[in-house]
Amino acid sequence: MFKNVEGPEAIRFLSTKPTMIITTLHENAKVNAGVFGAYTNLSRQHVGIAVYTESDTNRNILRDKEFTINIPSADLVKKIKILAENLPPGISEVEKAGLTLKDPLTNKVPSIAECAAAVECRLDKVVPVSSHDFFIGEVTGGWIKQDFVTDKGRLDVFKSRVFKDFCYPEPYYVLAGEIIEG
Ligand SMILES: Cc1cc2nc3c(=O)[nH]c(=O)nc-3n(C[C@H](O)[C@H](O)[C@H](O)COP(=O)(O)O)c2cc1C
């Protein structure tokens, strides 16, 4: 059911620009989850994410130098509101949302099994940008649901029904419409 990948080619699961759930570990080993959209591919193995300095995700990444990007399908849309809450470190958003943790392959951060794919990263650089830090992560591995992988090893945006965009702070999300060949 899962196709596991050890190595930077797991970056192919981010070939679209999806809404992401980032999991990190609190100091007490509970899994924290936050929802993020300010993301870009930077190289064949690097991704960049802008994370508010006062968030748990920011603190956990600075401390542990690891994070995992989980890519939710449209069927998780109601869970996103819970995952975007700022809960104290004793309470895990993942548990509150009733989601299942999956053991990591290449870092120490569990992923969310109900997602379409997950990409494990190690922190490479931090660039402070006003109220946010721009974290540059190196992809170390990940997994994708077998049904959603294209013949080129990428995430199929239509079959997986991952979000292509969102209208934050409104709770509106956008699915891929149509591909126009250029
Ligand atoms: C669709 C969506 C996109 C978001 N994108 C970002 C983002 O790119 N950067 C950011 O710092 N916060 C973003 N947020 C807000 C965080 O999810 C929110 O601050 C959350 O409390 C962070 O979780 P944490 O405190 O557990 O890290 C977004 C929220 C939603 C719902």
TrEMBL record:
One Pfam match: Flavin_Reduct
Cofactors required: FMN
GO molecular function: FMN binding; oxidoreductase activity, acting on the CH-NH group of donors, NAD or NADP as acceptor
Annotated ranges, domain Flavin reductase like: 14-165
The keyword Iron-sulfur appears for this protein: no
Top-level taxonomic group: Bacteria
Cited SUPFAM superfamilies: FMN-binding split barrel (SSF50475)
InterPro entries (alphabetical): Flavin_Rdtase-like_dom (IPR002563), Flavoredoxin (IPR052174), Split_barrel_FMN-bd (IPR012349)
Keyword ATP-binding assigned: no
Keywords (A to Z) from UniProt: Flavoprotein
Family classification: Belongs to the flavoredoxin family.
PANTHER family: FLAVOREDOXIN, FLAVOREDOXIN-RELATED-RELATED
Protein name, UniProt field: Flavin reductase like domain protein
Organism: Limihaloglobus sulfuriphilus
